[in-house]
Amino acid sequence: MRNWIPLLIGASLLMHSCGDQAASDNAAAAVETPLSGQSAVKDDDSQKDVVKVAIGSADHSTLVKAVQAAGLVDVLSNAGPFTVFAPTNAAFDKLPAGTLDKLMQPSSKADLENILQYHVYVGVIKTDLMNDGQVLGQANGGNITISVKDGKVMVNGKATILASVPASNGIIHVIDEVLLP
Question: Mean pLDDT, consecutive 10-residue segments, the chain of 181 residues?
Fold first, then answer.
């Protein structure tokens, strides 16, 4: 029996050290794995957030690229609620030549963020709750003015709301102009 005691103690230490090594390896892997924001959460069952809705729209590929370049994907993927006034690709095409290219450069990131945040109202406001002359404070600190005439809802007297799409964290109003602060 005495010959078995050192063997049992040795086996126990070996098993314990292997367990510690596995735990250590798992901890190291967890530290090395880069963490991602809310946009990295995979969920194919729930209603899509405003970013995922925009990504799924062929008419908003320019907006999606701009949101990515400005580093706002995670912000707009959070719980919100947000009302996003989303310019179509055709709206971006109306900007003066070279404007979008310049805004997409890393050196213009702050300007791009400012413009994109001017398209976001924190809260949910549907078109049937919008009133003529209503002023909304935007995420960048600026204000937009809503006008309603003959059932047509416009933003800042230029951008017409073409459609509204609900999302899990707010609502998207598709507009035909880029709003400039």
Answer: 43 42 42 47 69 94 95 90 97 95 95 97 96 97 96 96 96 97 92
Sign for the CA dihedral angle at 56, 58, 136, 95 comes to: positive
Could you give the C-alpha distances from 39 to 35, 73, 96, 150, in angstroms and in order?
11, 6, 31, 39
- CATH pick for 47-175 out of 3.30.70.920, 3.40.50.1820, 2.30.180.10, 3.40.190.10: 2.30.180.10
Q: Which two tokens stand for residue 66?
A: 């701009």
Residues with Cβ within 8 Å of residue 103, at least 6 apart in sequence: 66, 111, 112, 115
- The whole-model pTM stands at 0.74
CA distance 150 to 81: 28
